[in-house]
Amino acid sequence: MKHLFFFFFPFLLLILQFSLCNSSYLIYGEALSKSIMFFEGQRSGFLPNDQRINWRGNSGLGDGSAVNVDLTGGYYDAGDNVKFGFPMAFTTTMLAWSVIEFGEMMPPPELRNALVAIRWSTDYLLKMVAQPDRIFVQVGDPIKDHNCWERPEDMDTARTVYMVEAPNPASDVAGETAAALAASSMAFRSSDPGYSDTLLRTAIRVFGGPTAITQTLGMVLAHFTDELLWGAAWLGRASGDERYLDYIQSNAKSLGADENINEFGWDNKHAGLNVLVSKVQSNLTPFILFMFLAWIRTIKMFRLEVLEGKSYDLESYKASADSFMCTLIPESSSSHIAYTPGGLIYRPGGSNLQHSTSITFLLLTYANYLERSSTSINCGTISVGPTKLRVIAKRQVDYILGENPKGMSYMVGYSDRYPQRIHHRGSSIPSIKDHPQFIGCKEGSIYCNSSNPNPNVLVGALVGGPQEDDEYEDDRFDFKKSEPTTYINAPFVGALAFFAANPNPI
């Protein structure tokens, strides 16, 4: 019997390895599906028949009526019922970038679901900027809304519409909205070219066009310079118009691209901007430039004779991107990003997973750029290649999905242990399907104050996450840790798409 065991033992190991690899694939694939499904739980407006988070109902159907415009649709960005245009636009940009960078790795049904999630937002963003010299930036009074605890289906607080008109500045929202529409135009280019063209034309108009780039809706000031460069970078990539490259090259220093702020999120685009422009820089190396131009000729995106006669120096962006990556490497002499004892990237200020997921996305995106250009990063005494960046990214993803000191998945509805008391009105109050009677502004407080688990599972939602010592209390009141947001989930979609296709990328 012992001889039989030793004979079959190597084969048992192979079978075990195979099953673990497949199990890992299924885990990341499930998480990818749920991370996209989450956005259906955040929908505002009239819900379609194929709505999968079926405890939600129609809401905000009168949004915009106070100013005689249609502002229905879009997303509630967190656990409240306000629609904030700025973080919604960033969410859209990141969903679109996920499809651009990792869409080919997504199973076709999930790619379709990701595009549906993007379009739910872009349809709304188009409404935000439909009127000349005016941008609608928010629907809902945040103070009144936050003084209530009620389902979006029951909202009886003022749906105040906030707008900015020329010549008042709104360069942050305008720049991010232009970026979102431009990136989304690329995501839809093959599946819906007509819609893609509409998005790109609108993005160019919102930004002001390449010859009037500092006159975006009459609102551009230098107070929000990262959004100006971010919007220009996405417009250059989506339109192929070399004048946007001129802009990001000539304004790099004056608009602070070399400040090397090591942060990326809805309110600061610096690290993401540097990574994005680094792809353009790598595309302008001789061989890749030749291939890039051949591709451009095929789809006739821009005037080749102009680009072919120009020399672009975007090295400052790439240098800043390299520097940012080095700060993430613990062995690097320039490392200064903090990690929890369990290995999670940590930045103080609350809702920490927004930093972890967005940085994870940049790690994987930059790893792809390094691999395609066969280059590495010099981090002082060590050289860092794509494999090292992917190892760090995988640790973040695995931590979030449950490989952490608490043994808890921070994605709701994933695994058998996840946050049960998230800070989310619709999730915490009985569904309108189960309790069709109206629940008013203060009547929902009993559900907010309850220690019971939320009755409705907001599948796929990523909460704010644990504190710097890896501790997490499942507490609805601790919104910094327990509130989900769209801008935490959006970059995680791309990361999960990569690992679903490459569960063991080492």
TrEMBL record:
<feature type="signal peptide">
    <location>
        <begin position="1"/>
        <end position="23"/>
    </location>
</feature>
<dbReference type="GO" id="GO:0030245">
    <property type="term" value="P:cellulose catabolic process"/>
</dbReference>
<protein>
    <recommendedName>
        <fullName>Endoglucanase</fullName>
        <ecNumber>3.2.1.4</ecNumber>
    </recommendedName>
</protein>
<keyword id="KW-0732">Signal</keyword>
<dbReference type="InterPro" id="IPR008928">
    <property type="entry name" value="6-hairpin_glycosidase_sf"/>
</dbReference>
<feature type="active site">
    <location>
        <position position="483"/>
    </location>
</feature>
<feature type="domain" description="Glycoside hydrolase family 9">
    <location>
        <begin position="28"/>
        <end position="496"/>
    </location>
</feature>
<dbReference type="InterPro" id="IPR033126">
    <property type="entry name" value="Glyco_hydro_9_Asp/Glu_AS"/>
</dbReference>
<dbReference type="InterPro" id="IPR012341">
    <property type="entry name" value="6hp_glycosidase-like_sf"/>
</dbReference>
<keyword id="KW-0326">Glycosidase</keyword>
<dbReference type="InterPro" id="IPR001701">
    <property type="entry name" value="Glyco_hydro_9"/>
</dbReference>
<keyword id="KW-0136">Cellulose degradation</keyword>
<dbReference type="Pfam" id="PF00759">
    <property type="entry name" value="Glyco_hydro_9"/>
</dbReference>
<keyword id="KW-0378">Hydrolase</keyword>
<keyword id="KW-0119">Carbohydrate metabolism</keyword>
<feature type="active site">
    <location>
        <position position="474"/>
    </location>
</feature>
<comment type="similarity">
    <text>Belongs to the glycosyl hydrolase 9 (cellulase E) family.</text>
</comment>
<keyword id="KW-0624">Polysaccharide degradation</keyword>
<dbReference type="InterPro" id="IPR018221">
    <property type="entry name" value="Glyco_hydro_9_His_AS"/>
</dbReference>
<dbReference type="GO" id="GO:0008810">
    <property type="term" value="F:cellulase activity"/>
</dbReference>
<feature type="active site">
    <location>
        <position position="423"/>
    </location>
</feature>
